TrEMBL record:
Identification of the protein by name: Hydroxyacylglutathione hydrolase
Pfam family name, one: Lactamase_B
Cofactor list: Zn(2+)
UniProt GO MF annotations: beta-lactamase activity; hydroxyacylglutathione hydrolase activity; zinc ion binding
Keyword flag ATP-binding: no
CDD domains, alphabetized: hydroxyacylglutathione_hydrolase_MBL-fold
Source taxonomy: Bacteria, Pseudomonadati, Pseudomonadota, Betaproteobacteria, Burkholderiales
Enzyme Commission no: 3.1.2.6
HAMAP family in the cross-refs: Glyoxalase_2
Role according to the record: Thiolesterase that catalyzes the hydrolysis of S-D-lactoyl-glutathione to form glutathione and D-lactic acid.
Length: 265
């Protein structure tokens, strides 16, 4: 089983997973990169998995469906064009001999879902897979457009409890920008410094920084570390203007951290 990130638009990745004959794709921003990959590798597209309704995640779905007849699976709580099988937490889809569980992760959008495959034994290297759309990025998280800070924090907590080896397959190459902010939050985080160096080297060679792993993200991602004393203190010093004191302290800190990132230059 092979996992590939297909670059799309300016900074998107469409994830393609295939067994040398059949394939699935996740969040196809546009159709052509997928059609090219299918033709080059002589693959049949069996299914399309979608995490949320934004155009840069579903823009290629109609053309791919028309060209391949692939089935589409997406969030039950968001407006999606038919035909689509609508899913939510507790549902699962079996494709290419793999079981993909649905996790509800609202925050970026109201009905955002993630796709989690716990059994990655057929992959090289073997590891669970997480297709998390715009909820969790390497070194960051998505903007909160339709949900609330409390929802986003709960969603990240849910993803953060998955196994260390889980490969984090997010949908954008935002890593260096995210790490620049993370270093402003935790300038003394040695794991963060080392990860930033690795990612800079990868990008200098034109290589993707993804997938990351959950173990890596727990060590360097301020949005998974928003309860860590160093992050809490940084927020209190730098983003005090955004602390409202109107809700639970951990949610208030997380909201202020996200607002700090929104304004960071």
């Amino acid at each position: 089983m092979t996992l590939l990130p297909l670059p799309a638009l300016t900074d998107n990745y469409i994830w393609l997973l295939h067994d040398q004959q059949q394939a699935i794709v996740v969040d196809p921003a546009e159709a052509q990169p997928v059609l090219d990959a299918l033709q080059t590798r002589h693959l049949t597209l069996r299914a399309i998995l979608v995490t949320h309704h934004h155009t840069d995640h579903v823009g290629g779905v109609p053309e791919l469906c028309s060209a391949t007849g692939a089935a589409v699976y997406g969030p039950a709580g968001e407006a999606m064009p038919d035909p689509i099988t609508r899913v939510s937490e507790g549902d699962h889809v079996e494709l290419l001999g793999l079981r993909f569980e649905v996790l509800d992760v609202p925050g970026h959008t109201a009905g955002h879902i993630a796709w989690y495959c716990a059994d990655g034994a057929a992959l090289e290297p073997p590891s669970p897979l997480l297709f998390c759309g715009d909820t969790l990025f390497s070194g960051g998280c998505g903007r909160i457009f339709e949900g609330t800070p409390a929802q986003m924090l709960a969603s990240l907590d849910k993803l953060g409890r998955l196994p260390d080896a889980t490969r984090v397959c997010c949908a954008h190459e935002y890593t260096l920008s995210n790490l620049r902010f993370a270093r402003a939050v935790e300038p003394d985080n040695e794991a963060l410094r080392e990860h930033n160096q690795r990612c800079e080297a990868l990008r200098a060679q034109g290589q993707p920084t993804l997938p990351s792993t959950l173990a890596q993200e727990r060590a360097i991602n301020p949005f998974l570390r928003s309860r860590h004393p160093d992050v809490v203190q940084a927020v209190a010093r730098t983003a005090a203007h955004a602390l409202t004191g109107l809700g639970p302290a951990e949610v208030d800190t997380f909201a202020a951290l996200r607002q700090w990132k929104n304004e960071f230059r």
